[in-house]
């Protein structure tokens, strides 16, 4: 453990609350504990009820002091928690007192970063601390907690162990070029590689599910003016956010709402019609819409089936990214006679056709389920864990390297090299050899006090 300064932060959310917590981490916090309590000596892991004193011995607050002695603490250093009264003024006074006693303000995620640097958590676990705090649904929170407890990391460690074992086998033969092929065949190197690849495919599939839950999905509503995009957005969100009018082109901005379906966060984005215009305000909206469409996971193409698909709609459909999954949505079912309800498919690239009424709320449940299906969500299953797109990229990279390794035939040094690269990608997930700048990016997105 390297020399570090003491850090302090208000760990509870801003505002008023029954209790507020100041958290400190550093190398030797007993003197600080004694100064702030007027000479008391806290026992590790025992609550100490005390006044918290200013420099000249005045009580700033009273409450509980918790002391965790290194290394048995969250960060692996000495940790102190001051549980005082949860008002902003009290918290600020206590924090200022800690700074006076030599601490400096913690950066976002700095406590967790220290936990990582002191091997209390690996990187995937550290990330899941932030994911748990940021979880937008109960499922996401449950899965983040599983990651925090090591569900994901354990899979990765098992894979890395197997890759290392195989590497040792392969590299051992590099010194004996005469016998290497026979040796590897006898040791069933290819069979071992196949097993690793199967395992990795399993972990990747689980991680993809976990990433859907963490990142949520982006759904864009596209279609000609007046087909009911804003109305559908409102119906899905359950209250009015966009301005609904009868005048074509009145949705001037991208309007978004987040809803949760089966625990999966869905960002629903109403587009500004995606058409060429000279109106400056409208132009900004349209640019944002194009960006939203580029980043979308699914597009809902709304049409009014009484009008079918007009040139506007065709133009919009043509502008959608080629591999963006689309659903064809026939809106305003309440206005249609039974003959029109026989859903004819107008748009060839659509994966499905559905009939809804945004106004009456008809067909929305089926629509939500269809959206989950489009991203391959299989429902929360036992053993799932939360994952980030960073993890998916690393797994995909490792998968690629292992595929290269399988194709190396008798070129054993190449085989060994691809195994090495696969291991590096896997190690990136748990952060074994991760560069400092990546760590900076990851931890800076935490909240302060974590
Ligand atoms: P947008 O331009 O695509 O955003 O369309 P809007 O949501 O602004 O809707 C245009 C008009 O169609 C409004 O008058 C809505 O009330 C109406 N509308 C939207 N959905 C339905 C529906 O399901 N049934 C009926 N009867 N009217 C609808
Ligand atoms: Zn609109």
UniProtKB/TrEMBL annotation:
Enzyme class: hydrolase
Swiss-Prot/TrEMBL cofactor(s): K(+)
Keyword Ribosomal protein carried by entry: no
Organism domain of life: Bacteria
Gene3D superfamilies membership: P-loop containing nucleotide triphosphate hydrolases (3.40.50.300), Probable tRNA modification gtpase trme, domain 1 (3.30.1360.120), tRNA modification GTPase MnmE domain 2 (1.20.120.430)
Binding-site residues for K(+), renumbered to this chain: 226, 245, 247, 250
Subunit-level organization: Homodimer. Heterotetramer of two MnmE and two MnmG subunits.
HAMAP family: GTPase_MnmE (MF_00379)
Protein name: tRNA modification GTPase MnmE
Organism: Vitreoscilla stercoraria
Organism placement in taxonomy: Bacteria, Pseudomonadati, Pseudomonadota, Betaproteobacteria, Neisseriales
Name of the coding gene: mnmE
């Amino acid at each position: 453990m390297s020399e570090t300064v003491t850090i302090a932060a208000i760990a509870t959310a801003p505002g008023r609350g029954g209790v507020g917590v100041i958290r400190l981490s550093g190398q030797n916090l007993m003197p600080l504990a004694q100064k702030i309590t007027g000479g008391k000596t806290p026992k590790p892991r025992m609550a100490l009820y005390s006044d918290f004193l200013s420099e000249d011995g005045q009580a700033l607050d009273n409450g509980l002091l918790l002391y965790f002695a290194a290394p048995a603490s969250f960060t692996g250093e000495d940790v102190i928690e001051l549980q005082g009264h949860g008002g902003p003024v009290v918290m600020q006074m206590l924090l200022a007192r800690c700074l006076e006693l030599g601490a400096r303000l913690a950066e976002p995620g700095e406590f967790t970063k220290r936990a990582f640097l002191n091997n209390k958590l690996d990187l995937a676990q550290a990330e899941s601390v932030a994911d748990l705090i940021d979880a937008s649904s109960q499922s996401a929170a449950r899965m983040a907690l599983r990651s925090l407890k090591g569900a994901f990391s354990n899979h990765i460690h098992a894979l890395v162990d197997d890759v290392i074992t195989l590497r040792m086998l392969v590299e051992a033969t590099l010194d004996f070029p005469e016998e290497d092929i026979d040796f590897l065949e006898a040791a069933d190197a290819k069979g071992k590689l196949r097993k690793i690849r199967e395992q990795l495919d399993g972990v990747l599939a689980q991680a993809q599910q976990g990433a859907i839950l963490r990142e949520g999905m982006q759904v864009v509503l596209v279609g000609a003016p007046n087909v009911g995009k804003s109305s559908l957005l409102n119906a899905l969100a359950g209250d009015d956010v966009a301005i609904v009018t009868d005048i074509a082109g009145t949705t001037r901005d991208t309007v978004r709402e987040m809803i949760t379906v089966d625990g999966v966060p869905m960002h629903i984005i109403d587009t500004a019609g995606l058409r060429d215009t000279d109106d400056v305000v409208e132009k900004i909206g349209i640019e944002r819409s194009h960006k939203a469409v580029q980043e979308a996971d699914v597009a809902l193409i709304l049409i009014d089936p009484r009008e079918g698909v007009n040139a506007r709609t065709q133009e919009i459909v043509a502008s959608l990214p080629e591999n963006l999954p689309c659903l064809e949505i026939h809106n305003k079912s309440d206005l249609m006679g039974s003959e029109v309800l026989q859903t004819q498919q107008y748009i060839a690239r659509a994966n499905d056709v559905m009939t809804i009424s945004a106004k009456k709320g008809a067909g929305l449940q089926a629509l939500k389920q269809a959206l989950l299906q489009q991203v391959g969500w299989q429902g929360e299953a036992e053993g799932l864990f939360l994952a980030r797109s960073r993890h998916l990229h690393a797994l995909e990279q490792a998968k690629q390297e292992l595929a290269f390794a399988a194709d190396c035939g008798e070129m054993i040094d190449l085989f060994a090299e691809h195994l090495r690269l696969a291991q590096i990608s896997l190690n990136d997930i748990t952060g074994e050899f991760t560069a400092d700048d990546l760590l900076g990016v990851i931890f800076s997105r935490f909240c302060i006090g974590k």
